[in-house]
Amino acid sequence: MSPHPQAQLLDSMQGPEDGVFAVLKEKFPILVFSCVQLSSKLSFLGCIIDNDTAVGFLHSVGHSVSKQALLESELMVLKGLEFRVNDPNPLTYVEVLLEVLGNNRPSVPVERLHELCHHVLQFVSLERNAIFESLLVSTTQRASPSEEQREKFVAVTEDYMLLGVGVIAVASFIHCFKRWGKIVEELSHITGISSRSISDFAHVTLKHIVGAP
């Protein structure tokens, strides 16, 4: 029986990229998990996902994969990133600061704050422009800051250290308000950023979280 004409047409239209797509489609779940596993190895406060745990989990969700295949998948991800996995980012600053904060003040619930900081950082990232605009207005005490003030403020918007302490301050305000002042003081001591600047960032962000004008 001869192949269906439409099937033959579809086969003839497939190019080399279709083969590549088929391979990627098959490996995609493993690649995604490799990204998660690599992230766990870079986290200061999270638990590292070792290969035994990874293979066991993947088997449980229907993906039969060996440790060797998992290592090759990690290597593929690293090559795709050109091995640049330690570029500075806001989360890195948050985690390092939490690590230091926990060492300096063991009573601070760092693990809970770490979890909450993820949500706060996500919110700040989504509302970044609005939050920094409010912070600019609050800092300059002007409803319409001048162009010169805006130009100088650019450095503030790019300061990951300020963002890191601000995110932790917001999470602390939400989770352990009674200790908030002490935590802000300690963050100021760690970073050299004034308590006033940390508090201003936290208050502006909290207003956006609750939807206050």
Q: What would you note in describing this structure?
A:
This protein has about 210 residues and is an all-alpha fold. It has two domains: about 5-80, no CATH class; about 90-210, no CATH class. Helices cover about 75% and strands about 0% of the residues. The protein has eleven helices and no strands. It has helices at about 5-15, 15-40, 50-60, 65-80, 90-105, 110-125, 130-140, 145-155, 160-175, 180-190, 195-210. Helix 5 (about 90-105) runs antiparallel to helix 6, helix 5 (about 90-105) packs across helix 10 (about 180-190) and helix 9 packs across helix 11. The N and C termini lie far apart (about 75 Å).
Uncertain segments are none
Helix content, binned percent: over 70%
- The proportion of strand residues reads under 5%
DSSP summary: helix tally: 11
Largest sheet: none
Written as H for each helix and E for each strand, in order along the chain, the element string is HHHHHHHHHHH
Number of E-state strands: 0
Oligomer: single chain
Q: Give the termini distance in whole angstroms.
A: 73 Å
Structural class: mainly alpha
Average pLDDT level: 85
How many whole angstroms does the radius of gyration measure? 24 Å
The total domain count is: 2
Global morphology: globular
